[in-house]
C-alpha cells in the first residue's frame, strides 16, 4: 500500500519510527516532512498529505503533531479527505468501517506500541459500504459552503 506520512517538529521521532515499521511491513511510505526539530507550521505538511490523497497518489495518510488536533483540522479542509484523530484501536476501526477515513492523525505523545496496533487495525479495516454509512459520507462530500 502507498502511504503518505507527515509531522510537525513534535512528531519527528514518532514519524521516523512509524515509517520504519510500515516499510518493514512492505508498505511504500512517502515522507512529506518535516524533517528537523525546528518549529514549523503544521498546515504546510498536513496539506501536502491531503493534496496527495486528493490526487490519489497515496491511499492512506498519517499525520503526527503535538496533539493531532491541528493536523486533523487542517487536512479535513481538503476535499475528499476524511481524517480521524485516533487514540485507540476501537476509534481506528470505526473510523474506517463507518466513516471510510483515508487519513489518521495522532498525538506525538502516544505510546509507539499503541500507535503500531492502531495502524495495523486502521490499514486492515475496510469500509463497510452499508447504505447508512455511504449516505452519510455522501452528505459530507456534497456539502459546499
Describe the model.
The chain is an alpha/beta fold. It has a single domain (2-142), classed as 3-Layer(aba) Sandwich (Ribose 5-phosphate Isomerase B, Chain: A), CATH 3.40.1400. Helices cover 46% and strands 17% of the residues. The protein contains six helices and five strands; from the N terminus they run βαβαβαβαβαα. The protein has helices at 12-24, 42-54, 69-75, 89-97, 112-124, 131-142; strands at 2-7, 28-31, 60-65, 83-85, 103-107. It has a five-stranded parallel β-sheet with strand order 2-1-3-5-4, with helices on both faces. Helix 1 links the parallel strand 1 (2-7) and strand 2. Helix 2 (42-54) crosses helix 3 (69-75) and helix 4 (89-97) runs parallel beside helix 5 (112-124). The longest helix has 13 residues, at 12-24. The chain is globular and about 45 Å long.
Amino acid at each position: 500500500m502507498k502511504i503518505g506520512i507527515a509531522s510537525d517538529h513534535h512528531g519527528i521521532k514518532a514519524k521516523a519510527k512509524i515509517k520504519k515499521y510500515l516499510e518493514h511491513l512492505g508498505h511504500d511510505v512517502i515522507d512529506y516532512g518535516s524533517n528537523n526539530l525546528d518549529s514549523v507550521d503544521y498546515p504546510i505538511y498536513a496539506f501536502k498529505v491531503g493534496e496527495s490523497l486528493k490526487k490519489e497518489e497515496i491511499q492512506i495518510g498519517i499525520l503526527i503533531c503535538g496533539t493531532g488536533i491541528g493536523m486533523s483540522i487542517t487536512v479535513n479542509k481538503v476535499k475528499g479527505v476524511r481524517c480521524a484523530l485516533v487514540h485507540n484501536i476501537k476509534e481506528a476501526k470505526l473510523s474506517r468501517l463507518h466513516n471510510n477515513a483515508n487519513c489518521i492523525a495522532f498525538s506525538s505523545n502516544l505510546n509507539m506500541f499503541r500507535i503500531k496496533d492502531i495502524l495495523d487495525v486502521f490499514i486492515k479495516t475496510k469500509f463497510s459500504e452499508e447504505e447508512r454509512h455511504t449516505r452519510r459520507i455522501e452528505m459530507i462530500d456534497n456539502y459546499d459552503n
